């Protein structure tokens, strides 16, 4: 399952695109950062 995120944690912009690898990775088109989003089970 891919977790959705609305803002880049580095620059705060919203132009985010999913990446194929690594799993659950996103790329910010504005600052070119790539980051992974993980969830915590409650």
From TrEMBL:
It comes from the Bacteria. This is Transposase-like protein. It comes from Actinomycetospora corticicola.
């Amino acid at each position: 399952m891919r977790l959705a995120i609305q803002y880049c944690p580095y620059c705060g912009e919203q132009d985010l695109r999913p990446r194929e690898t690594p799993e659950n990775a996103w790329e910010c088109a504005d600052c070119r950062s790539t980051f992974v989003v993980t969830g915590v089970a409650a």
